[in-house]
Amino acid sequence: MKKSNKKVYTAENGLPFIPCRLSTGKKLFLEYYAYEHSSGELKRKRIYVNHAYNSRKENLNELRRIQLEVDTLLKKGFALDEPIQKVGTKLSIWEALRQATKIRMASSGARNKEHYQSYLRVFGEFLELRQIKSLPVEKFSQGHCIDLFTWLMEERGVAAITRNNYQTYLNALMTVLMDKEIITKNPLGKIKKLRATSGRHTTYRDEVKSTLEKYLKKNHHNLYVFTRFVYYGFLRPVEVCRLQVQDIDLKRGIITVYGDNSKNKRGGIAVINPAFKKILTKLNLDQYPGNYYVFGTYKADFQAGAKMKLRKGFTEYHTKFLKELGIYDGHYTLYSWKHTGNKEAYDAGVDVYSIMKQNRHHSLEQTQTYLRGLGCIISKDLKETNW
User: Fold this and answer.
1) Which of 63, 81, 99 is the last residue of a domain?
2) Residues 242-295: pLDDT tens digits?
């Protein structure tokens, strides 16, 4: 079991391992050794995040966070593989994807784990719809992959960049299956990713905003309240789903957003303005346990609950109401409330620094770039001068 002169440790279940080493050279990565049942040896693994964030410092911080997670798994007895069926034993595509996902999640950060679970659910939905969940994994072909990506865009309405993300994750799962000799060929073949551009920062026009707010108040108060967290608190929809009752302090007028609940891993405080406080006060949140999730139901009537609800349900309801009102155009989304709130805060005179803090951006430059994308920051010299 000895690997060079590196010290080998013993996990709680008796398996050997070598903890993470952080490399800070030109390429940033973590290196660790984990036990592999099939070979009976320690195998070296590396995790790279060189292109995950905008700066080297952010990449280092992300690696340090992952290092803590991986070392914890190793100490508990994580292994690279489990007893798994080989090619020709009728392992279904669904079971193969589930096993590959489990293996990938074991060495992934918290954010990627959540992504893998989400993508697996969608893969399962597609397989169920096409009635091929029990199809032997070796018969899952390039044609099936193309059908999946077409379905994602035409039926689920995902953008090109999201479709490409599905391809990335599916390819990662297929790589695992090839490494484990479950399949001998990657069915993705030479399928190319689509050219994708960054999405618009669409804000609601005044008349559309007013119409939608009135409709939500009347037909789905729970979803209306959900949009207020996005509109006033500048919270992302996924952050709203993860919000717990104890995170809201009406006396101090703040909402605490923790880094592990945030998309960009930046925790912070969201200020509750008077209009937002009036809405929150009516929810009587003090009647619920502190560890309850603020949005515990998809139903029209507001109710906190012990189980976190997924963003998908709120997004689907929101899209449904947009279509009922005849204002769905593919650009107006649940996220548009965040863009609208930012624009209206800026137009109302809120300073850029306060907007930066409310968004939990890492710099004023990021906030200024974001506001320019919303059409907020316009040069007065150009606007007021003739030539």
Assistant:
1) 81
2) 999 999 999 999 999 986 555 555 678 999 999 999 999 999 999 999 999 999
Confirm whether pTM is higher than 0.85.
no
Of 173, 198, 223, which marks where a domain is finished?
198
* CATH number for 344: 1.10.443.10
Exposure class string for 300-321: b at 16+ Cβ within 10 A, else e:
eebebeeeebebeebeebbbeb
Please check whether residue 92 is in contact with residue 100, taking contact to mean a CB–CB distance below 8 angstroms: no
Q: Phi first, then psi: what are they for 320, rounded to 5°?
A: -60, -45
Domain total of the chain: 3
Asked whether residue 112 is domain-assigned, the answer is yes
Residue 333 in this model has a pLDDT that exceeds 70? yes
Q: Does 268 lie in the same domain as 351?
A: yes
Span 355-384, pLDDT tens digits: 999 999 888 888 988 898 888 876 656 556
Domain holding 227, by residue range, is 206-382
- Please tell me the predicted confidence (pLDDT) of residue 66: 81
| 124, HSE (Cβ side, Cα atoms, 13 Å) | 11
Matching residue, tokens 């009587």: 284
Per the document, the length of the chain is 387
